[in-house]
Amino acid sequence: MSKGNTFENDLLKLIFTATAIANLADNAASSPNTNLYVSLHTSDPGEAGDQTTNEIAYTSYARVAVARTSGGFTVSANSVSPASNVSFPAGTGGSGTATHFAIGTASSGAGKLLYSGTISPNIVCGNGITPVLTTSTAITED
User: Fold this and answer.
1) Which of 5, 51, 68, 94 is the most buried (most CB within 10 A)?
2) What is the C-alpha separation between 111 and 40, in angstroms, rounded?
3) Contact, 56 vs 98, CB < 8 A?
4) Rounded-to-integer distance, Cα 55 and Cα 30, Å
5) d(C-alpha 109, C-alpha 52), whole Å
6) How far is Cα 110 from Cα 68, in angstroms, rounded to an integer?
7) Total domains in the fold of the chain
8) pLDDT tens, 74-117?
9) How far apart are alpha carbons 15 and 38 in whole angstroms?
C-alpha cells in the first residue's frame, strides 16, 4: 500500500501547517491545536509509544512548541522539516544522549506521538549544552 504523492504532501500540510485538504479534511473548527511539540528521546519511542517513551530527562529539559503554520514547518516534496532551528533549553545538570526526536500533541505528559525519527549525529546532552535540531531534520511520507 502507498499514498499518492500529492496526497502525502497534502497530509503533511494538514498536520503540520493546518492547511485543509479541499473536499476531504479540514483543520478542527472549534479548538484546533495551534502548536505541535518536539521532544528528544534516548532511543526510538516506537510506533506503540507516546511522547514520554524513552524521553530524555536532563535537568531543565522541556519540549519545544512549534507553530502549526508555514512559519513553523516547511512542507515540500512529501517531506516536512522545521522552518527554523529548534533549540531546546540548555542543560543545567544531568546527562543523556538524544538519538531520536519526536513530534506530538502535548507540551508535557503522555501526549499523542505523531512522528519520530533518528538524530544524526546523536546529541550528547547535559550541563551547559543546548541541544538543537536544525532545519535539515526531516520527516518524509512515502
Assistant:
1) 51
2) 14
3) yes
4) 31
5) 6
6) 20
7) 1
8) 999 999 999 999 999 999 999 999 999 999 999 999 999 999 99
9) 14
